[in-house]
Amino acid sequence: MRANLLESTRFNFFMLRIQKCLLKEIMQIQIENINFILDKKLFWAKLNRKSAHCWGFFRNKSLLFFYPLKKMREVLTIEVGQAGIQLGNAIWEQYCAEHGIDNSGKRKENVAKMIPSKCSFEETGSGQFVPRNLAVEVRVTCILLASGQFDLEPNVIDVKNGPFAAMFHPEFLVHSKEDAANNFARGHYTIGKQIIDKVNDRLRKLVDNCDNVMGFVIGHSVGGGTGSGLGALILERLTVDYRKKPKLGFEIYPSPNLSACVVERYNSLLATHWLLDHTEVSLLLDNKAIYGICQKQLRIAKPDVNNLNRLISKVISSMTASLRFSGELNVDLNEFQTNLVPFPRLHFMTTGMSPIIPKADTGTAPNDVQKITDDYFKPANWFMKFTEFDPAEDKYMAISLNY
Ligand SMILES: Nc1nc2c(ncn2[C@@H]2O[C@H](COP(=O)(O)OP(=O)(O)OP(=O)(O)O)[C@@H](O)[C@H]2O)c(=O)[nH]1
């Protein structure tokens, strides 16, 4: 007997009372893609859908055992605007290196042990791994890399000529003909409104290709018109269409070192207002702080966006590592919210990384766990600058350390 218990029920706990007549054979019950084999002597069982925990009694009063056969939870990545797409490129480059996938999406030889995760990649019949990614950009040339990327300007979306071009499905690189001209309102109400249906359609296709979507990771800048305006619009639609799926946002905040555009701070303010309601967890990435890390710690005299994106991609990769690799420790997207967010609107996180050392020093720098942990708590290693932060006096509300 196979019962599909779908999301229709509103209860976290529900009782399965199994009649004697149904217990002739071993039963397989599928709950959100977790299969439980129940012994035929089972008397009753109680299942917690949230933690996929199950307990109960056999008729001889021994405790029920269960084991999950399959647990596939996919994470979809969405990149919006030029910054989002460039960041996406860095992320997929990082993921490919970690999973042993080459530029064309094929598994590299001699790295057989690194099994590409179906959480982030979809395996096609020909053995190619296609990122579960959508890129949206208004300028076409920006669409260089990611699946699930959106931008509005045609010249930015050049994913088709980028090094990872063969890996992405062109259908999931969405663009329009003109850009948002660094204007939130234009990205949100004018250009955004024109392509949002297309974006929704592609998103629906991405979701349909998954067994069970765990949530969304969205990368965008809040300074540009597309990243802020269209990004907010997409987040709003995700909230409406996929209400229970968590959305993890990586929001790039503008820095005067990288951009002299005066309206970026207004765009950021407007976008942040949308983020209050439409992301479950937002990781704030301050370009100025990351720029400082590159200069002071990596000794790069004039860092460019690639240096910044590479650092950010490592943070994102470490947050999704436990989803992409099997192991004892499993943190799903919901857990970031459960453990770190005390109140729904209070979900803006600071992130950081350690050790951050120049390539030349990798052999000589100490890298024991204590040192790495201590370094992490130094504000110099954070991707956000707090002008009056005092490490001794100020308090943290919640901390999550991923090693
Ligand atoms: N970290 C990082 N920041 C970037 C990158 N590209 C642009 N930015 C920053 O993002 C802001 C500009 O946003 P963009 O993403 O270029 O603009 P957009 O979202 O495409 O919007 P429009 O150009 O108005 O259509 C500026 O503050 C840039 O400094 C990048 O690759 N990495």
Automatic annotation (TrEMBL):
Subcellular location: Cytoplasm, Cytoskeleton
Chief localization: cytoplasm
Gene Ontology biological process terms from the UniProt entry: microtubule-based process
GO cellular component labels: microtubule
Reported cofactor(s): Mg(2+)
Keywords annotated in UniProt: Cytoplasm, Cytoskeleton, GTP-binding, Hydrolase, Magnesium, Metal-binding, Microtubule, Nucleotide-binding
Catalyses which reaction(s): GTP + H2O = GDP + phosphate + H(+)
Keyword Cytoplasm: yes
Keyword Protease appears in the UniProt entry: no
Domain of life per record: Eukaryota
One Pfam family this sequence matches: Tubulin_C
Transmembrane segment boundaries: none
SUPFAM superfamilies (UniProt xref): Tubulin C-terminal domain-like (SSF55307), Tubulin nucleotide-binding domain-like (SSF52490)
Domain Tubulin/FtsZ GTPase: 139-327
InterPro entries for this protein: Alpha_tubulin, Tub_FtsZ_C, Tubulin, Tubulin/FtsZ_2-layer-sand-dom, Tubulin/FtsZ_GTPase_sf, Tubulin_CS, Tubulin_FtsZ_GTPase
Gene Ontology molecular function, alphabetical: GTP binding; hydrolase activity; metal ion binding; structural constituent of cytoskeleton
Gene3D superfamilies: Tubulin/FtsZ, GTPase domain
Assembly: Dimer of alpha and beta chains. A typical microtubule is a hollow water-filled tube with an outer diameter of 25 nm and an inner diameter of 15 nM. Alpha-beta heterodimers associate head-to-tail to form protofilaments running lengthwise along the microtubule wall with the beta-tubulin subunit facing the microtubule plus end conferring a structural polarity. Microtubules usually have 13 protofilaments but different protofilament numbers can be found in some organisms and specialized cells.
Family according to the record: Belongs to the tubulin family.
Protein purpose: Tubulin is the major constituent of microtubules, a cylinder consisting of laterally associated linear protofilaments composed of alpha- and beta-tubulin heterodimers. Microtubules grow by the addition of GTP-tubulin dimers to the microtubule end, where a stabilizing cap forms. Below the cap, tubulin dimers are in GDP-bound state, owing to GTPase activity of alpha-tubulin.
Protein name, UniProt field: Tubulin alpha chain
